[in-house]
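stuck on this one:
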Amino acid sequence: GIADFTVGGSVRQFDLNSNGTLFEDEPGSTITNYEYGAYLQAVTGFMNDRLRLTLGTRLDGFQNFDASFSPRASLVYSAGANREHNFRVSWQNAFRSPTQLDQYIQLDIGPLILFGNIGDGFEGYTIPSVQAFGASGDPSVLQQVSINPLKVEQVNTIEFGYKGILFNDLYVDLSAYTSEYTNFIGSTRFWGQQSGELPDLAAGEGRPSQVWTNASQEVTAYGASIGLNYYWIRPLNFMATYTWSYLDTDDLTDPIIPAFNTPEHKYSLGINGTPFTNFNYSVNYKWVEEHEYQMPFAEGMIDTYWTLDAQVNYRIPDFFTTIKVGGQNITDNRFIQTYGSPTLGRMIYAAITVEI
C-alpha cells in the first residue's frame, strides 16, 4: 500500500582452468573466484501517480575486493491529458568490478607479457624511460613506477531525459548524462617482472609488461542520445537515432590506457511498415564514426563504416507461423568493429518461427 518493492540476489562462482595458456593457473590446477550480491528497490507514486519515485540499493561482495554499495534514485513526471509527456531525472552511484581477465590473466603476446593485478601490485620502470635507457645506457634516465593492486571502479552518474508524443504521430526519446569515474579501470605498460619486484637491470631482469590498474585521477564521460519515430501511414513509418559518447581525457596526466573503444558519433535512419495484412518490412541504415580501439594485443583506428540492413516478415495465421527473410550489410560494405579482427561482410538469413 505504500510502495511496490522488488528484492533479489545472486551468487556466482568462477572456475578458471586454462592450463596456464591464458590465466596464471598452473597446468592441472583451477583458480576459483566468487562474487555475490543482493538488491532492494521501492517504487511509489504521488499526485495521482503522475510523479513516480524510485529508490534502490545494491550491495555486492567479492573474493578479491572490498564490498561495494550502489544506491540509485529517479523521478519521473508525466504531463499532458493522456500523460503523453514524461520527464525524468536519475542519479546513481554504481560500480564496475574487474573482470576475470583483469584479475588473473598471464599471457605472453610477444612484445608484451600481460599480468593480472590482484596481489601486492608491481614495481618497475616506465616504458619510455626504459627505451631511453636502451638508447643511452645511462641508468639515471630510468623513472621508477609503483603500480597498486586493482580496486573496484566507481561512477557517479546524473541523467536527464524526456519521452513523449508530439503532434500525435511523432514519438521522441531524449537523454543526456554525465559520469564521474573514481578508480577508472584501464591498463598501463612498464618494464617489470612477474614477481612484482623491481627488476635488476644490471642482471638483465624484466621485460615490457602490461597490467590492469586504476587511474589515480577522476575521469569524466559525457553522452546524449535522441530517438525519433514518426508514424506517418501504416505502410510507411520513419525512424532515426543519434548517439554522442565522449570520454574526457584532455586533462588526464595518468599514463593509463583507457580502452574506451566507443565512437563519439553514430546514427541510424530507417523505414518500416505494414503494406499488406500479415506482411511487414524494415530497412535500416547505420553509420559509425572512426574511433580509436585499444586492446592488449593491438591498438589502432577503426575506420568510419556504414551498413544497410533489411528484413521482411510474413505471418500465416492459420498455421501460427512467421517467415522471415533478411540481410545485414546487404551491400557487402567490408568493415571491422574490433581492431585486429577480420572484416565483416554481407549476411543473408531466413527463418521460420512456429508458435506452439
